[in-house]
From TrEMBL:
PANTHER family documented for this protein: PROTEIN YCEI (PTHR34406)
Pfam families, per database record: YceI
Protein name (record): Lipid-binding protein
Start and end residues of each Lipid/polyisoprenoid-binding YceI-like domain: 5-170
Source organism, top-level taxon: Bacteria
């Protein structure tokens, strides 16, 4: 059974995030730095990719000063601690049909995560997409969480945020022997 490695293209892959609060939501992007996916017998069996936490962008805040302040806050210790932890890592542990079991590491903290992914191969190109729902408090992002602070009223930020992943990868010429 043939095992094939696909290198992720950071420029053709992207992550869209949505964070919600009582009064609405914010959304933006974050870059995929690098990574690879492994297929065995044409099926996804493993892989990992590195997320560049310093690349987070907010797309719905149009005032430049407010956007810069918000981006700085997301990079701060209240959220991603991007200076200390410039990378997050998603490492696939197992795959059953379209169900992915992985380890997600943010701020040096690792937890298991499950999500559904769609993977398509066209020649030497691989396209994958999936949606992760992440509880930020499990990664020491407690700012305005109702689990840790009381009487937040309309300043409460919900614990879960969504990460829509779209990955494009190219086959590596040398296949891995099974």
């Amino acid at each position: 059974m043939e095992t094939q490695k696909f290198e992720i293209s950071g420029t053709q892959s992207h992550l869209d995030w949505v964070g919600r609060k009582v009064t609405g939501a914010h959304h933006g992007t974050i870059d995929v730095k690098a990574g690879s996916l492994i297929l065995t017998g044409g099926k996804l069996t493993g892989g990992e990719f590195i997320i560049d936490t310093a690349s987070i962008k907010i797309l719905d805040v149009t005032d430049p000063a407010t956007n810069a302040q918000f981006a700085g806050h997301l990079a701060s210790e209240d959220f991603f601690s991007s200076e200390k932890y410039p990378e997050a890592l998603l490492c696939i542990i197992s795959v059953s049909e379209n169900q992915i079991e992985a380890h997600l590491t943010i701020k040096g903290i690792t937890h298991p995560i499950s999500f559904t992914a769609i993977v398509n191969v066209d020649g030497d190109m691989l396209f994958a997409s999936g949606k992760l729902v992440i509880d930020r408090t499990r990664y020491d992002m407690k700012f305005r969480s109702g689990n840790f602070f009381k009487d937040l009223g309309d300043t409460l930020i919900y614990n879960d945020f969504d990460l829509d992943v779209k990955v494009t990868a190219r086959a590596v010429k040398e296949n891995i022997l099974a």
